[in-house]
Amino acid sequence: MPGGAYVQLRDLVRLRYQARGFSYLPAQPVNSVLAGRKRSRLRGRGLDFDELRHYRPGDDIRTMDWRVTHRTGTPFVRVYTEERDRPVWVIVDQRLGMFFGSRHQMKSVAAAQAAALTAWRVIGVGDRVGALLFNDGQSALHRPSRSPGPLLGWLEQLVTMNNALVADAPEPTNPDALAQALQTVSRYLTHDGLVIIISDFDGWNDDCLTAIKSMRQSNDVIAGQVSDPLERSLATADRLVVSDGAYQLQIEAGKAEAEARFSGHYSAQLTALGETLKKHGIPLIPLTTETDVAGQLLRQLGGTTARAGAGR
Predict the structure, then answer these.
(1) Which span out of 65-69, 162-166, 168-172, 257-261 was modeled with the highest average pLDDT?
(2) What is the separation of C-alpha 309 from the centre of its chain, rounded to a whole number of angstroms?
(3) 309 CB contacts (<8 Å, ≥6 apart)?
(4) In a domain, 166, yes or no
(5) Residue 312 counted as domain residue
(6) What is the mean pLDDT of the chain?
(7) Whole-angstrom Cα distance, residue 11 to residue 294?
(8) How many Å apart are CA 279 and CA 256, to the nearest integer?
(9) Axis-axis angle for helices 206-216, 176-188 (nearest 10)
(10) Strands 220-227 and 194-199, how do they pair?
(11) Which one-letter DSSP state was computed for residue 105?
(12) Is the domain of 136 the same as that of 206?
């Protein structure tokens, strides 16, 4: 899969054929990061409650709703219909801070690939998928659909947003955009759905947590955090020059004190985020710019690269 600074629509479309062998459903292989999820709101495919109605001769007594029957004094049964699909929302971060990468590709490219792989996987198993794409100044919401047409529409918009990123942007990154995106999606959620957030989580704050807690009341949430090796350790760089657009500063990456402070700060942030999400039953899937995203998802969600063509 091509990496680099920008993503192209044809590459995201081709990912349809690599979106196999991993799953976001509750049943997971033992080595998946989603195995053993607590308080999962997601159900496996089966029966979905439809209505209560009066008991009729021949009804299965196991469907009797004893609470309603006791309260009304009249026999009632619960009627179920087959569960057809599940709404899935993919939130994709394309802010300026995502336009960074020291290895295989930019974080913004890795996020776009992860979103496309997820979306193709979702419609491949018959569920609906929608998206909330956002950058520093705007967002675009696409309601869930099981048709490839709407999916291609928002993938094209994702490519446009991705290709608009430039290092010398006149406006700085907007840390509040993450909370705003989460709040927007939370207003459109119903129940028994899944929200997958793909971001570097820059700007994580109490507003983000409030929005996620609201989502978790009736839905599942999974976080995919995108990072680059240089964010984790300055030791991977020989020479660093940082700029705020007006001034530049050269950093001697080999200085042990600077490396320790930098790595410690990033590690503390990551640990705090992971602990907060875990407390609220939200799995964290780490993604990196170093390698192919399809292979990372396959490994993280319980598969191996050798099984890429197997399974649903």
Answers:
(1) 162-166
(2) 22
(3) 20, 21
(4) yes
(5) no
(6) 83
(7) 12
(8) 34
(9) 20
(10) parallel
(11) B
(12) yes
Could you write out the three-class secondary structure of 5-70? Answer: CCCCHHHHHHHHHCCCCCCCCCCCCCCCCCCCCCCCCCCCCCEEEEEEEECCCCCCHHHECHHHHH
Which of 53-57, 156-160, 257-261 has the lowest average pLDDT?
257-261
Tokens 């520093």 correspond to what residue? 136
Note whether 52 and 172 are same-domain residues.
no
Q: Which ranges of 47-147 does DSSP label H, i.e. alpha helix? A: 66-72, 107-124
CB 198 within 8 A of CB 213: no
Helix (H, G, I), strand (E, B) or coil at 51: strand
d(CA 7, CA 9): 7
Q: What is the helix (H) or strand (E) element at residue 92, kind and residue range?
A: strand 87-93
Mean pLDDT of 145-174: 92
Number of domains in the chain: 2
Q: Length of the chain, please?
A: 312
Going by the DSSP 8-state scheme, the letter that residue 167 receives in this structure is T
**Does residue 74 sit in the same domain as residue 194?**
no
Q: Are strands 47-54 and 76-82 parallel, antiparallel or unpaired?
A: antiparallel
Query: Do 167 and 68 belong to one domain?
Result: no
Q: pTM value? A: 0.78
Q: pLDDT of 197-219, one tens digit each?
A: 999 999 999 999 999 999 998 89
Q: Which 3 state secondary structure label does DSSP give 131?
A: strand
Which residue segment(s) compose the domain that 53 sits in?
47-82
For residue 130, what are the β-bridge partners?
89
Looking at residue 4, the DSSP 8-state letter turns out to be: B
Residue 1 lies in a domain: no
Coil vs helix vs strand at 13: helix
How far is residue 158's CA from residue 98's CA, in Å, rounded to a whole number?
Answer: 13
**What mean pLDDT is predicted for residues 178-195?**
93
Q: Are residues 54 and 157 in the same domain?
A: no
Would you call 169 helix, strand, or coil by DSSP?
Answer: coil
Report the distance separating Cα 230 and Cα 241, nearest Å. 13
